[in-house]
Amino acid sequence: MKKRFALIIGAACSGTATLFRHLGTHPQVLPCRVKEPRFFTDDHKWELGIEWYRSLWDFREPDERIAIEASSEYTMHPSVPSPAGRIAQTPAGFRFVYLMRDPIERIEFHHARAWEEGSIEWKVADGVLPQHIEASRYAAQLDRYREHFPPEDFLLMRFEDLQSDPVAELRRICRFLEIDPDYAFPGVGPPTEARPKSWLERVSATFRGLGRARVRSDRRGEPATGRLSPSQRARVLSELRPDLDRLSQGYGVDTSLWQTDA
User: Who's near 5: CB < 8 A, 6+ residues apart?
Assistant: First the structure.
């Protein structure tokens, strides 16, 4: 039987780990033993072959569950070359879930994660890494996949929608993956308020019972390394605006809430 896979391809610091944990509770989903196997971007792992990749799941025969993983490296081109071509070569059925968030906020938390990991030693107000900006060019990342896969293989989601109405968004994912949309995901409640007060409040309200946020924040929900200055924000948003316009016009993602200098 040809195995079905659902890849949560990013974006980094956009709730992919939480989404992976949620989906992993569904009885028709088989989660990878490693959340981010990075099989399609790691040359050494790729050389181990598809059987090694399949060994990361506890498949039964026959098994009609959909196997899922979540490797945010899959949308970090060009710092990590896009794996779309390798995925297209793989003898399996693939669906893709791309979870995106406000690109400025995503950059701030990406910087904070790098700081926690020790690869950055300065606050985000002192400089933004170009690769963090590139990872927020969502349309450009999608372009590389669409060279190999049709539009119906993709579900494009906004982090903010998953926060504000997780029940509806999880049902939408289930319908996309062709699994039971009425499954009651543990710890998922009714819609939260439209404009939560802080990032930590939004996460706790939406993803109750799933543990602490991956990136450390201060008491106000700020990233550990702070926020971009107004001038930085304006500059980065100016760089990203053509991509955001194309994401809206070409991919149908509402980016209006993200394109503000406030």
Answer: 66, 67, 68, 69, 92, 93, 94, 95
Instruction: Show the low-confidence residues of the chain (pLDDT under 50).
Output: 192-213, 219, 262
Distance CA 177, CA 28 (A): 10
Q: Provide the 3-class DSSP secondary structure of residue 5.
A: strand
Domain 4-251 has CATH 3.40.50.300: yes
**Backbone dihedral angles phi then psi of residue 198, each to the nearest 5 degrees:** -150, 165
Question: Which CA distances in Å does 207 have to 39, 87, 127, 212, 222?
Answer: 28, 30, 31, 10, 18
* Angle, in degrees to the nearest 10, between helices 166-177 and 16-23: 70
pLDDT digits (tens, 9 = 90+) for 50-65: 999 999 999 987 778 9
- Token pair, residue 78, equals 């060009």
pTM over 0.90: no
* Distance separating alpha carbons of residues 154 and 250, to the nearest angstrom: 14
DSSP letter string, 27-50: TTEEE-SSS---TTT-HHHHHH-H
Calculate the alpha carbon distances from 35 to 19, 32, 189, 259 in Å.
11, 6, 24, 31
